[in-house]
Design a protein that fits this description.
Elements (H helix, E strand, L loop, with lengths): L8 E12 L2 E13 L4 E5 L6 H8 L7 E6 L2 E2 L5 H9 L1 E5 L10 H6 L9 H14 L15 H12 L6 E5 L7 H18 L2 E6 L2 H7 L2 E6 L2 E7 H6 L4 H10 L2 H10 L5 E7 L4 H11 L3 E12 L2 E11 L3 H10 L3 E6 L7
Parallel strand pairs: 3-8, 3-9, 6-7, 7-8
Antiparallel strand pairs: 1-2, 1-4, 4-5, 9-10, 11-13, 11-14, 12-13
Helix pairs in contact: 4-5, 5-6
The protein binds adenosine-5'-diphosphate and magnesium ion.
Function: Part of the ABC transporter FtsEX involved in cellular division. Has ATPase activity. Essential for cell division and viability.
Family: Belongs to the ABC transporter superfamily.
Organism: Enterococcus dongliensis
């Protein structure tokens, strides 16, 4: 029998409030979550949702007003000063603005967290060089941060965050200042670190593409609460909350297409969602052969989400068997949403 993995990060009913002017503001409103070792856990929400506060609670920079925070099996309250320092080192952090020291070389930036360790100068240098190799930046060891691109700076920051062999890497909008191509290369690096080192990654973002590219599970935050969470592919297919839908729609540009299509005078519009094995085209083709129906594909987008294929299609259906053909699609495991439907007096 396989033992259930113990979560590496656990929040139990965590609340954080701040005093502001006369009132108080609730940055975390009874948040509970459990992150498994080796997981890439994404947290998405708009600005002000409480994401950074959640991160600060996890890395012990913020003491919760109430509730428990357990990291690596240790509750913050139970730690003395020395244990606390040690626990903090096991959590690496990267940020949107890299926070590198511009007067030090790349190598010195990476060596910095090792200065307090019992290492010889040579050992420290070797360790830092090995980390730079890991992020594919060895040849820039003697460069200064100002000479680097945004993507390279973030690689240095990642190497530095890994200096103390953390179990957990926390990323607070680490790709938000980068262009899409560089974002992807940083995400691929995080993914390979997750796989190579078994590093647990908590990834905060306001961009659903980031979640979609590398996260295993996702939590959606709004007004200090986690309003929805689950496996990425499942949340993508069956979002429960309006806010989640909004995020997903922006990712596949479906909203833009919908607005455009709605303005046309086409009737009987359907939104189809496919997941996993089902190949979109084949099901639609079969449907058109089986029924008296013409299917006009107005929009289609296929994407990889957490190893699954997720396809979205907007169809205009016409003919005498529209209802039966929609029923058929549903039987094939396709989710069908009616966007617009003409009232047919004869049906
Ligand atoms: N130190 C603080 N003092 C007062 N209010 C704060 C503090 N930190 C965060 N807040 C407030 O808590 C809410 C959540 O902030 P934050 O966690 O930074 O959100 P996010 O990272 O999702 O943008 C915001 O309304 C913010 O203004
Ligand atoms: Mg923030």
């Amino acid at each position: 029998m396989e033992a259930k993995k113990r979560p590496v990060i656990e929040l139990q009913d965590t609340v954080v409030t701040f005093k502001r002017n006369q009132g108080t503001i609730t940055a975390l409103d009874h948040v509970s979550l459990a992150i498994e070792p080796g997981e890439i856990y994404g947290i998405i929400g708009y600005s002000g949702a409480g994401k950074s506060t959640l991160i600060r609670v996890i890395n012990h920079l913020q003491v919760p007003t109430s509730g428990k925070v357990i990291v690596n099996g240790q509750a913050l309250d139970d730690l003395d000063q020395r244990q606390f320092q040690k626990a903090r080192k096991k959590i690496g952090m990267i940020f949107q603005h890299f926070n590198l020291m511009n007067s030090r070389t790349v190598l010195n930036n990476v060596e910095f967290p090792l200065l307090g360790e019992k290492l010889s100068k040579t050992e420290r240098r070797e360790k830092a060089l090995a980390l730079l190799k890991l992020v594919e930046l060895e040849e820039l060891a003697e460069a200064f941060p100002d000479q680097l691109s945004g993507g390279q700076k973030q690689r240095v920051a990642i190497a530095r965050a890994l200096a103390n062999n953390p179990d957990i890497l926390v990323s607070d909008e680490a790709t938000s200042a980068l262009d899409p191509k560089t974002t992807l290369s940083i995400l691929k690096l995080l993914q390979s670190l997750n796989q190579q080192l078994g590093l647990t990654i908590v990834l905060i973002t306001h961009e659903i593409q980031v979640i979609q590219t590398i996260c295993h599970r996702v939590a959606v935050m709004e007004a200090g609460q986690i309003i929805e969470q689950g496996k990425v592919a499942e949340v993508f297919m069956r979002p429960k909350k309006q806010l989640t839908r909004e995020f997903i729609d922006t990712s596949i540009n479906v909203q833009e297409a919908l607005n455009r299509i709605r303005q046309s005078n086409l009737q009987d519009l359907y939104l189809l969602k496919f997941i996993g094995e089902t190949t979109n085209q084949a099901v639609v083709t079969e449907m058109a052969q089986k029924f008296q129906v013409a299917a006009n594909i107005l929009f289609a987008n296929v994407d990889q989400v957490d190893h699954l294929t997720v396809g979205i299609m907007i169809l205009n259906l016409s003919g005498s068997e529209v209802s039966a053909s929609v029923e058929y699609l549903r039987q094939q495991g396709v989710e069908v949403e009616v966007i617009k439907k003409e009232v047919h007096s004869h049906e």
